[in-house]
Design goal:
8-stranded mixed β-sheet; 4-stranded mixed β-sheet; Rossmann fold; globular; binds tryptophan; alpha/beta; 14 strands
Length: 323
């Protein structure tokens, strides 16, 4: 999955996607941090695919199971001759469940920042679903974009799976929901996958697996700085840490400096104390109620919600009744 949260992240003095500027800025803050959107270079995207298949990483599997089991309900929510607009479509794996479910769907608009990947995926989907109009939009889904003219009169359904909404700060999640409401318009439905608060151990293991894939994914950010910005991070000098912050109801991912060290990036020296961390990502968890409240406060009315038997994950159908 390609994720691009640039439009809603805390603004920095950096121009769009200036990796070096973002790195130097983030590493100069009192709590060092790096924007999580830089995880997804080719290596990172491959590692992310592996994460979704880990035994400990329950969200992907659970969400796909849910999409299958609530197919009939979902079909009813989506209605006939609708267009599905996916925010950050990546490889559209989960969408295939929805596309297969809603046989009467008129069009699919995958929105993704990676134009080349998008065209490739669109071509595959056209072969698989010859009756469906596949109309990709290459855009940062957190910023305003236009829907293709061909879908203007169709009933609209937004799709935002993967609990990607959890990677936003709550105020950013609210801003994103409002933004999606503006793009989809009044009367639209929004299908959003949201990971739920649960046993801390289960949560933590999902982000700190026994094979160390998530650790590799996190550390790849430093490897990428070395590759692309001529950094000299010693990858053995940092370790992956993920824990559940129960006050803020989020998993936090950090890279911990194992010792006192100095790193150079583009000629700039960055000092680390022993145990000092770089905060790389949050994954907020919600209850059915707390997500419903967030949606309501952002112009959406919760219409239906589905969860698995263990209440690990949820899929919300929201309706846009605002202007
Ligand atoms: N949004 C998902 C989650 O927070 C997927 C994800 C994003 C993820 N970044 C991650 C999973 C880093 C593991 C590690 O779970």
């Amino acid at each position: 999955m390609t994720m691009e949260l640039a439009g809603l992240e805390t603004p920095t003095p950096c121009a769009d996607d200036d990796f070096l500027c973002e790195v130097l800025h983030g590493l100069s803050l009192p709590q060092k941090s790096l924007p999580s959107r830089f995880f997804y270079d080719a290596v990172g995207s491959g590692l992310f695919e592996q994460i979704t298949e880990l035994p400990e990483y329950y969200p992907t599997r659970t969400e796909i199971g849910l999409l299958r089991s609530c197919a009939t309900d979902l079909r009813r929510s989506i209605g006939a001759s609708a267009v599905v607009v996916e925010f950050g479509s990546g490889s559209s794996t989960k969408t295939r469940k929805v596309l297969s479910t809603a046989a009467s769907l008129a069009a699919y608009v995958p929105v993704d920042i990676s134009a080349q990947f998008l065209q490739q995926q669109a071509a595959e989907l056209r072969c698989e679903y010859p009756k469906l109009a596949v109309l990709p939009v290459a855009a940062d889904f957190t910023r305003p974009f236009e829907l293709p003219d061909a879908v203007r009169i169709m009933p609209r359904v937004g799709f935002f799976p993967g609990s990607t909404i959890g990677n936003f700060e709550p105020h950013e999640a609210a801003a994103f929901l409002r933004h999606a409401g503006r793009i989809l318009g009044r009367g639209a439905t929004f299908i959003v996958g949201v990971d739920l608060i649960k046993d801390t151990q289960v949560l933590q293991k999902a982000y700190c697996d026994s094979q160390g894939v998530t650790a590799k994914f996190n550390l790849n950010l430093l490897a990428r700085i070395n590759r692309e910005l001529g950094g000299d991070f010693d990858l053995d000098g940092f370790s992956h840490k993920a824990f559940y912050n129960s006050v803020r109801q989020r998993i936090e991912m950090h890279l911990v400096s194992k010792r006192r060290q100095k790193v150079r990036v583009a000629g700039r020296a960055i000092e680390f104390r022993t145990g000092e961390t770089i905060h790389t990502e949050n994954s907020y968890k919600y209850t059915l109620e707390s997500f419903g409240a967030l949606a309501r406060g952002s112009g959406w009315t919760p219409a239906a919600v589905w969860t698995d038997a263990d209440a690990n994950f949820s899929i919300h159908a929201l309706v846009n009744e605002s202007a």
